[in-house]
């Protein structure tokens, strides 16, 4: 893997708006934007604005950040139209897939921690 730092990290550049993206959510700590190569009708990436290389390099002090990142998933899924819905008869519709690729064998391409939120009809039949 090439050395990655905040200075040459593509997702840091997206977070600081040096590189444009289709932003679907932003707050002080996080940005969510559409994946440039969507694998499903809904495919967004949720990133912390803080540069962290991978899930494997997170530290104890990142636990609150990781919790907030996960909490964003159902909220954004709902806003993007792929939230999990429980109907009055107890049946479920909707739903989505979440993915964190880690390292070479995990298929990670961009070394800035991100959660893929992938939704729409049966995305698990796709490539990922
Ligand atoms: P990974 O394989 O690291 O988990 O996923 C990286 C994802 O970032 C890929 O799905 C890829 O399509 C997406 N991606 C890479 N470069 C860009 C970019 O410049 N803009 C956007 N919006 N997505 C990107
Ligand atoms: Zn970064």
SSE inventory with pairings:
Layout: H1 10-15, E1 23-26, E2 30-34, E3 42-48, H2 63-79, E4 85-86, E5 92-93, E6 96-99, E7 115-119
Antiparallel strand pairs: 1-2, 2-3, 3-7, 4-5, 6-7
The chain binds guanosine-5'-monophosphate (5GP) and zinc ion (ZN).
Guanosine-5'-monophosphate is lined by residues 10, 19, 21, 33-37, 45, 101, 107-110.
Number of helices: 2
What is the helix/strand order? HEEEHEEEE
CATH class: Alpha Beta
Query: If you average the pLDDT, what whole number results?
Result: 93
Shape: globular
* Quaternary assembly: single chain
CATH superfamily: HIT-like
Report on this model:
This protein has 128 residues and is α+β, with helices and mostly antiparallel strands. The chain has a single domain (6-119), classed as 2-Layer Sandwich (HIT family, subunit A), CATH 3.30.428. The chain is 18% helix and 23% strand. The strands form two sheets. It has a five-stranded antiparallel sheet with strand order 1-2-3-7-6, covered by helices on one side. Strands 4-5 form a two-stranded antiparallel sheet. A hairpin with a 5-residue loop joins β4 and β5. It is globular, with a radius of gyration of 15 Å. The two termini are 21 Å apart. The structure holds guanosine-5'-monophosphate and zinc ion.
Quick overview:
With 128 residues, the chain is α+β, with helices and mostly antiparallel strands.
């Amino acid at each position: 893997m090439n050395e990655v730092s905040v200075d040459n990290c593509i997702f840091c550049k997206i977070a600081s708006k040096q590189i444009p993206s289709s932003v679907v959510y932003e707050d002080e700590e996080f940005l969510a934007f559409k994946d440039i190569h969507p694998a499903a009708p809904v495919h967004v990436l949720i990133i912390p604005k803080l540069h962290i290389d991978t899930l494997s390099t997170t530290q104890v002090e990142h636990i609150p950040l990781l919790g907030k990142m996960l909490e964003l998933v159902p909220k954004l899924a709902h806003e993007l139209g792929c939230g999990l819905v429980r109907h009055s008869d107890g049946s479920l519709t909707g739903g989505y897939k979440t993915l964190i690729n880690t390292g070479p064998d995990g298929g990670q391409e961009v070394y800035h921690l991100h959660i893929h939120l992938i939704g729409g009809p049966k995305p698990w039949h796709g490539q990922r």
